[in-house]
Design a protein that fits this description.
20% strand, 7 helices, Alpha-Beta Plaits, globular
């Protein structure tokens, strides 16, 4: 079977607020129903060092300290999804960063009312996906 475009990978983090609210299955199901493959998945905590590495471009920004506290405040689910144009399609499924402004039908639009506690992180580019997957799943080549 051949495809006109190469299969991409992306990192998705189902954030602590989604885990706390029992939304992991709902969120994961949306990605699976769209047709993406789960290549790796783990329930784990994000420590401060991993938070700083993952959000390296935001370290000096005023919103980062509360974001770091939130992301390290409970378990999350890290997963690698693969499929055709997975990066762009997943970001479309996730919706706008601010859940109050995200479109209905998106994960954030349907399930979030917050800008910071917005349920999901998804890589925003091929380069980000490669960097983030290497941080979270160093054994995936």
């Amino acid at each position: 079977m051949s495809s006109s475009s190469p299969v991409e990978r992306t990192l998705v983090l189902i954030k602590p607020d989604a885990v706390r609210r029992g939304l992991v299955g709902e969120i994961l199901g949306r990605f699976e129903r769209k047709g993406f493959t789960v290549d790796a998945m783990v329930l784990r905590a994000m420590d401060g060092a991993l938070a700083d590495a993952h959000y390296a471009e935001h370290l000096e920004k005023p919103f980062y300290p509360p974001l770091r506290e939130f992301m390290t405040g409970g378990p999350l689910v890290a997963l690698v999804l693969s499929g055709d144009q997975v990066i762009d399609v997943v970001r479309g499924l996730v919706g706008a960063t601010d859940g109050r402004k995200a479109a209905a039908g998106t994960i954030r639009g349907d399930l979030s009312l917050s800008n910071r506690e917005n349920l999901v992180h998804a890589s925003d580019s091929v380069d980000s996906a490669k960097r983030e997957i290497a941080l979270w799943f160093p054994d995936l080549g």
